[in-house]
Amino acid sequence: MTLRAHTNGTSPDGIADDAKASTQLRFLGDKKLMRKQPVVTMEYMESDSFKEKLQVLRSAMKEHGGIGIAAPQIGWWTRVFCFGIEGENPRYPAASSIPFTFWINPKITWESEEKNFMWEGCLSVPGMRGWVERSSEVVMSGMDENGVFRERRLSGLEARIAQHELDHLDGVLFPMRVPDAKFLVPQASMDAKEKWGSDWPSPGSRKTGLGELGDEK
User: Fold this and answer.
1) DSSP label of 176
2) Alpha-helical regions (H) of the chain
C-alpha cells in the first residue's frame, strides 16, 4: 500500500494528528505517547502540513523550557525530534550551549561502550528527575528539515539528549530507564539536595548537578 502525504493534518500512517497548531503536551501514561511511532515518508515530508508542524514543535520546546522535544510529546505521531540549548536553561543550569537541530527518521548506528549518568527530566514527566545511564558517544543518522541525509558523531550532553529523544519515538520515557526506584525523585527533592545523605541514592548521583554528566553510578 502506498502512503500518501496530506496537508489536512494527518500523519504518514493515516492517523489524524492532534498537533495541528497546538503546543499542548502529552504526558506519561498517554497510550499514544507510549507506542512506537511510524516513519516519515518523503511525500509527507514535502507537505505544507509537515513543515508547519516542525515549527510548532520548535515553538513547543521553547514555550515549555525544554532542551529537546519529540513529536509525540505534542500529539504529532511520527518520528521527528529537535533539540538545542541557547544560553542558560533553568531546568539544566550547568548545561552548555548546543546548536539547534531537527532530526527526521533518526537512527543510532553506533554507540560507545563507555557510559555516563545524568539526572534526566522530561516535559512529559513534569516535576520528576531520574538517574539514567546512557552511552557517552553515539553516531546518529537521519534527515534534516530540508530532507537532506546526514550522519553525525555526538558526544557528551548532545549524545545524551539525542538518545533521550529517540527513546520517545519508540514509546520509552526516562522513568523506564532508571536502575531502581530510589533513582526516581521529585524535583522538590532535588531542590533540597543538601539534606540528602552523603551517598544517597548513590555516590555518583549525590554529587552530580542538574545538566552535568557523571562518570559513576
Assistant:
1) G
2) 42-45, 48-63, 156-169, 187-191, 203-207
* Inter-residue contact 212 to 89 (CB < 8 Å): no
Please tell me whether residue 199 adopts helix, strand or coil conformation: coil
Cell numbers describing residue 159? 549524545
- Give the 3-state secondary structure of residue 132: strand
β-partners of residue 200 are: none
Query: pLDDT (tens digit, 0 to 9) for every residue of the chain, 217 residues total?
Result: 333 333 344 454 444 465 455 899 999 999 999 999 999 999 999 999 999 999 999 999 999 999 999 999 999 999 999 999 999 999 999 999 999 999 999 999 999 999 999 999 999 999 999 999 999 999 999 999 999 999 999 999 999 999 999 999 999 999 999 999 999 999 999 999 999 999 999 999 999 999 999 999 9
Q: Indicate whether this model's pTM tops 0.85.
A: yes
Q: Which three cell numbers stand for residue 134?
A: 546512557
> In angstroms, rounded to a whole number, what is the distance separating the alpha carbons of residues 217 and 204?
5
How far apart are the C-alpha atoms of 110 and 28, rounded to whole Å? 28
Question: Among this protein's residues, is 216 annotated catalytic?
Answer: no
Amino acid symbol at 131:
W
Three cell numbers at 71?
513529536
The three grid cell numbers given for residue 130, joined into one nine-digit string: 531520574
Q: Of these residues, 43, 114, 165, 216, which one is catalytic?
A: 165
Beta-strand relationship, 184-186 and 128-135: antiparallel
